[in-house]
Amino acid sequence: MTSILAVMRRLWIACLPWLAACGFRSPAGEPADASLCFDGFTRVCLQALPAMQRVIASNMELDTADGCETTTMGTAAGVCVIAAMAIEVRSGATLRAIGSRPLVLLATSSIVVAGTLDAASHRGSAAGSGASPAAGCGSGTAPTLAGGSGGGGYGGTFATVGGDGGESVARGAKGVASTTVELPTSLRGGCPGIAGASTNPGAGGAGGGAVELIAASIMVSGRVNASGAGGEAGTLNDSGGGGGGSGGMIVFDAPMLEVTGTMMVQGGGGGGGSGGVGAGTPGADPTEAGVGAAPGDGYHAGGGTGGAGGTGAIAADAGDGQAGNLIGGGGGGGGAGIVRSSAPG
User: Fold this and answer.
1) Helical (H) or strand (E) element with 184
2) pLDDT tops 90 at residue 318
3) Type and span of the H or E element at 12
4) Tens of pLDDT along 139-177?
5) Alpha-carbon gap, residue 226 to 336, rounded angstroms
6) Hey, CA dihedral for 118, 123, 129, 130, is it positive or negative?
7) Which of 36, 77, 160, 269 has the fewest CB atoms nearer than 10 Å to its CB?
C-alpha cells in the first residue's frame, strides 16, 4: 500500500490546482562564509551556527517583532528567524506565532512538530505571523451604502479567490473580491477580508500568517495551521458583514520530509449582516482540514448570511442578501492559502 508520506509528497510536488506552482529561487549572491547559509524558499545566512536545541513542551506565544536571530544576508530580511541545532514542538504543546513578520524556523539537524505550530489568525485575537501584509493583496471593489442598508464585504484572495459580499436589498452594492492570484516570490501571509458597509459594519477577518521550516529533516505528526480568521457581523442599522480572511502560507524546506499530521491554510467564514436593530453572527475560523469555515448567520430573516471559507479544493462562497427587507448583506468567505515543499518525490 502506498504510504501517506509518499502520497503527500506527490501531491506537493505535483502542486494541486489549489497549491502554488512548485519551484524555488536560486541564491542571490554568496556570503564570505557559505557554511552559515541555508537555502530554501527563503535564503537565510546567520552570523554564527546555533549551539543549542529548542524544545517547546508547553504552550508558548512568539511575537515575531522580538527575539529573532540576526542574519547577515540572503532573502531573510523582513522575516523572523529562530535558529537552533534542533527544534521540537512536543505533543500537547502549541507554539503560537504572532506579529508583523513571517516566521522561519531553522534547524541544522531536525524539526519535529508533534504538537501544534499555529501561525493562523483567529477572530478576536492577535493576527498570525506576517498576516495581512501591506503589499501584495489585490484590490477588490468595496461595498457601498444605499437607502440605509449596506452591502457585505468581500473575502480575502490569495491562492484562490475570495467570495463576494451580499448585496443589500436597498441596493447597497456588494463588495467584489479581487480575482488576482499570483505566485508569491517571498514568504508572506494571506490577505484580509474587507469590512461591510453602513454605520455599524462587521470588520473583515485577518489573513492567515506565514511560516517556513528549514532543516535537514522535518517530521510533522501534529498540526501546522496558517488559516485566516472569520469576518465580524454587522451589528446595527442594516449593516453588512465583514469578509473572511484568506489562508496564509506554509513552506517546508528539507531533503527528508515526513508528514502524517495536518496542514491548514483555509479561509475564514464571512460575517452575517444585521437587520434593523439586530446583529448577525460572526463567521467562524477554520477548525478542520478540508472543511470550509462556517459562515455567520444574518439577523433572523433580515440580515444576509455570510459565505463559507474556501479550502482550495472547495471555492469560497459569496455572502447573501435577503429579498424583501432593508438589510445588510453577508460577508464573503476567504480564499485558500498556499502550501509548498522542496522535498524530493
Assistant:
1) none
2) yes
3) helix 4-14
4) 899 999 988 889 999 999 999 999 999 988 767 899 999
5) 10
6) positive
7) 77
